[in-house]
From TrEMBL:
Bilayer disposition of the protein: Multi-pass membrane protein
CC annotations in GO: membrane
PANTHER family per record: TRANSPORTER
SUPFAM superfamilies: SNF-like (SSF161070)
Protein keywords: Membrane, Transmembrane, Transmembrane helix, Transport
Pfam family name, one: SNF
Transmembrane segments: 19-38, 50-71, 92-121, 151-174, 186-206, 226-251, 263-287, 323-344, 364-387, 393-414, 435-457
Intracellular or extracellular location(s): Membrane
Organism: Ornithinicoccus hortensis
Name under which the protein is recorded: NSS family neurotransmitter:Na+ symporter
Recorded superkingdom: Bacteria
Length: 461
């Protein structure tokens, strides 16, 4: 039998509460906030999107964040081990979450690498007059997938670098690697990002952009897709139901306040997200202003195109654009890094516990496998399509399924809801009432199941 049942004598630990909060915010604040949220909000009702978003945060985001914390902290293991300690067969759920994380890491790394390349390209505005044809265009070619030399130099090389840094951080361990990386990265990110947003909102046309983002389209509220998008955004953005927060909370000391840090993390993350929306759309308003068109006339307001085609156009138009570009892509890189480290720590920690490997052994194994897949995939022209597909399945369907299974299993099948709530309350200052059991046991699963069915039907028809 593997060593998985016997916890190592010394579990790795954060140096303290601040370390944990920093790392948890670092995990939450990522590409999802800067690169995903603004476009998703714009596409799903603009200002009206904030309503499903807020409801998703309060009815599922924070409650499931607490659930992740309670499982990891009480059962002191990465997701597979912690669930296994609850019930041997629940281990499978843990591995399902690890699988989702792994799949996401493959494309997440690629986006970091793109951003890294664009950081460098910003200095010389190297995309010239044609941001579309410059780079992402390689992925937009139709026909048989081929390896492209542009992609090898602009993506594969930075990907190697990305993975090397991830590997080093993981190999240094939780306190000296992961926590340190966040300790350096997070303050840097906040400062750079604030500078970016201030610059963006003072550009001519910024208010048009904000109007476009925040003008509510109330009709969107009756569209189930909009609600799914809100829940998916919250799950992705808070890094919940991926087993990652289970892992992170398993590295806290036994007597550790869990709930109040959770609230800090959740609100910090959403604030950053809204701030990113303001920054990104102010900049888009500026672009529309320069081109003398309306925001809606600009193509590419969502997804990868927004950051890597539309944004370069903004940067080219702007006085001092190089600096702005470097700040923007630099923020993407740093925000992405502190998140992908958490994803990989979840995977690597699980492999470590399951197979009794050392920290370095499992860090090398896991990063190497993930690196090879992402480098191979994103050096070919099919990378972007793969990203879209994975984003649909892993983020919208996979993680919602994971959350449903988690809540049903813990609350109804294994009946651990009260035990977990007592555990959180015993260690924390902010006390959770029975409303929590109701949210994770009834409201959450019902909402999520309904949305999941809608989504699957719409993807299949
Ligand atoms: N929360 C991160 C973001 O917003 C991404 C992430 C997803 C991190 C899943 C960990 C797990 O970009």
């Amino acid at each position: 039998r593997s060593a998985a049942n016997t916890a190592p004598a010394e579990r790795e630990q954060w140096t303290g509460q601040t370390g944990f909060i920093l790392a948890a915010i670092g995990s939450a604040v990522g590409l999802g906030n800067i690169w995903r949220f603004p476009g998703v909000a714009y596409e799903n009702g603009g200002g009206a999107f904030l309503i499903p978003y807020l409801i998703a945060l309060l009815t599922a985001g924070i409650p499931i964040l607490f659930l992740d914390y309670s499982v990891g902290h009480r059962f002191r293991g990465t997701a597979p081990l912690a669930y296994r300690r609850i019930h041997p067969r629940a281990e499978l759920l843990g591995w399902f979450q690890i699988l989702l994380s792994f799949v996401i890491a493959v494309y997440y790394a690629a986006v970091i690498a793109w951003a890294g390349s664009y950081f460098v390209f910003s200095f010389g505005l190297q995309w010239g007059d044609d941001p579309q044809g410059f780079f992402l265009g390689e992925y937009l070619q139709v026909g048989e997938p081929t390896i492209s030399t542009t992609l090898v130099s602009a993506v594969a090389l930075p990907l190697v670098l990305t993975w090397a840094v991830i590997l080093i951080v993981l190999a240094l361990g939780v306190a000296k690697g992961v926590e340190k990386a966040n300790f350096i990265g997070l303050p840097l990110l906040v400062l750079a990002f604030l500078a970016l947003v201030v610059r963006a909102i003072t550009l001519p046309g910024a208010t048009d952009g904000l109007d476009a983002l925040f003008t509510p389209n109330w009709g969107a509220l009756t569209d189930p897709e909009v609600w799914i998008a809100a829940y998916a955004q919250i799950f992705f953005s808070l890094s919940i139901a991926f087993g990652i927060m289970v892992t992170y909370s398993s590295y806290r000391k036994r007597k550790s306040n869990m709930t109040s840090p959770g609230l800090v993390v959740a609100f910090a993350n959403s604030s950053f997200e809204v701030l990113a929306g303001i920054g990104v759309f102010s900049a888009l308003g500026f672009l529309a202003h320069q081109q003398g068109v309306g925001i809606a006339d600009i193509e590419g307001l969502t997804g990868p195109i927004l950051s890597f085609v539309t944004f370069p156009a903004v940067i080219s138009q702007m006085p001092g654009g190089s600096l702005f570009g470097a700040l923007f892509f630099g923020c993407l890189v740093v925000a992405g890094f502190t998140s992908i480290i958490s994803i990989l720590q979840g995977v690597s920690g699980s492999v470590q516990e399951k197979f009794g490997l050392g920290i370095r052994q499992s860090a090398v194994t896991v990063s190497a496998i993930c690196a090879v897949i992402s480098i191979a995939l994103f050096s070919t022209t099919s990378g972007l399509l793969a990203l879209d597909t994975v984003d649909q399945w892993a983020n919208n369907i996979g993680v919602v399924t994971s959350a449903i299974l988690m809540t049903l299993l813990l609350v109804w099948v294994l009946r651990r809801g009260e035990e977990l709530r007592f555990h959180l309350n015993a260690v924390s200052t902010f006390q959770i009432g029975r409303w929590w059991n109701f949210l994770i046991g009834v409201v959450g699963p019902v909402f999520l199941a309904y949305m999941l069915i809608q989504k699957v039907v719409s993807l299949l028809t």
